Amino acid sequence: MDKIGWRAAWGLCLLHLSLAQIDLNVTCRYSGVFHVEKNGRYSISRTEAADLCAAFNCTLPTMAQMEEARSVGFETCRYGFIEGHVVIPRIHPNSICAANHTGVYILSSNTSQYDTYCFNASAPQGEDCTSITDLPNAFDGPITITIVNRDGTRYTKRGEYRTNPDDINANTTDYDFSSGSPSERSTPTDYTIFHTQLPTEYPTQGGDHPSVPSYPEDASVTRDQDSTSDSAGRHHTTHGSKADGHSSGSQGGGASTTSGPIRKPQIPEWLIILASLLALALILAVCIAVNSRRR
């Protein structure tokens, strides 16, 4: 009985440790700008985005810095925070990314949870894929934070970077995009197009038809779909019936209809910790009672 009790207690401790962790997937830097995804889904608030970039000794990029990064090859298929906006940088059109637009696609509804982009002022110009091996401005805390680089290398430290209690004790229902479900957050009914000099398509080896390029910078390129089209040719994303989004970029043509978001409940970390401690206390009490009876 003693062995079973201690094994159960140890198992609960390991379970708690596995739950109290944060995985941060980071990309290469493009003129200092890079993308950060937390725990494989949209789960970063605007306040946490600023804290997370600060932990990397970075800031949220401005629109000009994002445009500069895109001009040297940066594109993703994930919405993320920058200074004042939620955006997707696109170079090549894709019907499941940024409503098939190129440029920096802006989502006006920016009060929910997304990924984030960060800007490192000391990074070199162009592409820099050096592994990130530190979270220099994280402070003491109970969370195991793991940075996962594009090449698969990992850096782990114990600490915390969030300063907003609402982010630490989040008990919200967020949208999980890791399953590949096509959905987005808002319903823009108009958009602004800024034409760029970057190519929007390029031919195949035969030279007859444009091909959809591969996206080495974002492995999640097929995971998000965000556009619908009406008879007037206006592209929009969906968030209930509210019309509140727009975009900047050039239209690549073609669109597809989205389905509603999959809602996934998220258990707050403090509740997990409390349940683990109560279960551990119960197991220890049972072990003590059994030992007392034997004596």
From TrEMBL:
Subcellular location: Cell membrane; Cell projection, Microvillus; Secreted
Signal peptide: 1-20
InterPro entries assigned: C-type_lectin-like/link_sf (IPR016186), CD44_antigen (IPR001231), CD44_antigen-like (IPR043210), CTDL_fold (IPR016187), Link_dom (IPR000538)
Recorded topology in the membrane: Single-pass type I membrane protein
Single GO biological process annotation from the record: cell adhesion
Record-annotated membrane-spanning stretches: 270-290
Residue span of region Disordered: 157-262
Domain (Link) ranges: 32-120
The protein's name in its UniProt record: CD44 antigen
Species the sequence originates in: Phyllostomus discolor
Lineage: Eukaryota, Metazoa, Chordata, Craniata, Vertebrata
